[in-house]
Amino acid sequence: MIRSRALAVLAASVALLAGCAQGGGKPAGSAAPANAAPATTAPAPVPAPATGGTPPGTLLVADFGADTVSFVDPARGAFASVEVGTAPYGLAVGADGRAWVATAEGVAVVDTEARTRLALVPYRTASGPATTGEYRGGGMGIALSPDGRRVYVGVNVPGGNGTLEVLDTASLKVVDRVPVGRRPFDVDVARDGSEVYATNHDSFDVTVVRADDLTTRRIEVAPYGTEGGLGSWLKPHYTAVRPSDGRLLLPFEGERLVVVDPRTGRSEIQEMTADTHQHGTTITPDGTLLTVGTGPIDPASDRGPSLTVRAPDGTERVFPLDGPHEDVAVSKDGRTAYVTGGFTRDGSWDGLSIVDLRTGATHRLPAGSRPLGIAVL
Question: Which of 24, 186, 256, 277 is the most exposed place for a label (fewest CB within 10 A)?
Fold first, then answer.
């Protein structure tokens, strides 16, 4: 199955390689959904809360299609936005209410209570001009250390390997950096803060970085092999750290979940059931994994966009979605999933899908501009 899947996808990719070069045409490594939803225009923002401030449960989304983050009431839509920098991608929110947003220009620091930008911290890595699109240079995945003292951001360098930059949250300065793989889509941190994990899309790997001395180890994650190189569609995108044991969970194609022990580098592969190209993922404190399916690679055999909810025992529920999506967050009570419609390639739309995880009922909420990263405040 793995071998035949890889060969079929490789054959489909060959015809597209001319348009998959870095910085041009359609991105390599993401599926072209057959049922992509048309882009929508978000309505005028709803009024801000009359009491002032930002209510708990507000959603914060990174507007990859604009230079802003949007504050979203999950019942009514966006009510405010803050300019942060070109093409914001991932974001992370600390216990102090500051949000850290990876843009093409630097890491934006946002006071989520006052809804203002406090700073824009430039990268030390030369990643080219601040542009837009999936291949743009600059920050992609981003995460906070458990103690809130460090921000780790994966910086994409078009045409080459990326870096992991370390930002001190007190001084608002980049204090260190370390080489990682190509296009670090996602960054995660061990629960005890001892290690940082950069998931590198175009090099089929995860870079494990020790937080104390920044030494690195590379772990290849390629359940379909690396055949096709940059033209392959079967690459890692996002990672979740399992709370129970610290293992890394990387979903592939709604078919395979790669479970990586970061201490040994060993992997095991478990079956998944959605049969769709997969991107964003998150995990709840009890170990429930949520993964976004963006749509089919091969419309003749693959299924459409979906949200997979995988229990700790491996049982799955798959909720169909209308059109491609990118990332996902879960309400504090664990009852609702918020799935961003931004998507990193064709077919994105300006809003969220809101999924009731008890009943499977789903509805769309216009919000933001091609939203990617998302957090619940």
Answer: 24
**Least-confidence region, from 85-89, 195-199, 343-347:** 343-347
- What band does 51 get if pLDDT is binned at 50, 70 and 90? low
- Three-state DSSP string of the chain: CHHHHHHHHHHHHHCCHHHCCCCCCCCCCCCCCCCCCCCCCCCCCCCCCCCCCCCCCCEEEEECCCCEEEEEECCCEEEEEEECCCCCCCEEECCCCEEEEECCCEEEEEECCCCEEEEEEECCCCCCCCCCCCCCCEEEEEEECCCCCEEEEEEECCCCCCEEEEEECCCCEEEEEEECCCCEEEEEECCCCCEEEEEEHHHCEEEEEECCCCCEEEEECCCCCCCCHHHCCCCCCCCEECCCCCCEEEEECCCEEEEECCCCCCEEEEECCCCCEEEEEEECCCCCEEEEEEECCCCCCCCCCEEEEECCCCCEEEEECCCCCCCEEECCCCCEEEEECCCCCCCCCCEEEEEECCCCCEEEEECCCCEEEEEEC
Q: What is the pTM of this model?
A: 0.89
Name the phi and psi angles at 121, rounded to 5: -95, 115
Per mean pLDDT, which range of 37-46, 206-215, 288-297 is the poorest? 37-46
